[in-house]
Amino acid sequence: MAPATSDRTLKLVATGTLAGVFSGLFGVGGGTVIVPLLIFWFGYGERLATGTSLGAIVFIGLLGTVAQGFYGNVHLDTGLLLSIPAVLGVVVGTAIQQRIPQRAVSLLFALLLVGVAIELIVK
Questions:
Q1: How buried is residue 50: exposed, middle or buried, by Cβ count under 10 Å (0-12/13-18/19+)?
Q2: Which of 113, 102, 44 is nearest to 12 (CA)?
Q3: What is the DSSP-derived secondary structure letter of residue 27?
């Protein structure tokens, strides 16, 4: 295996592992771990990183739900009710993302992360 491929594979494994740990610990992982690392380590554009992350989240979310369910930490009715408007939201969000400059998407995402960080520190 070529060193570049090996390095890439190790980084992908590290990214996936971090996303899984953060998902199990905090309920996050795709947007806060996968997207930034795909951009930083692999040079993905915001759109490609987001789409790739969403593909990974399908599996992370399913397994995380099952694992949390074993501890009684899943309110299935609430989760299903949240998913209905979320489906519409992802369609709208994707359409908006495709119509604004990629730099604007990156800046908005960075502002979101900073805002969440400040909110967590203040509380």
A1: buried
A2: 44
A3: S
Q: For residue range 63-73, what is the model confidence (pLDDT) as tens digits? A: 999 999 999 99
Residue-wise DSSP of 39-87: HHHH---HHHHHHHHHHHHHHHHHHHHHHHHHTT---HHHHHHHHHHHH
Collapsed DSSP state (helix, strand, coil) of residue 100 = coil
Sketch the domain layout of the chain as residue ranges: 3-122
CA 24/CA 20 separation, integer angstroms: 6
Could you tell me the pLDDT band of residue 56, with boundaries at 50, 70 and 90?
A: very high
Contact 14, 25 (CB under 8 A): no
* Whole-number Cα distances in Å, 98 to 51, 102, 103: 11, 8, 12
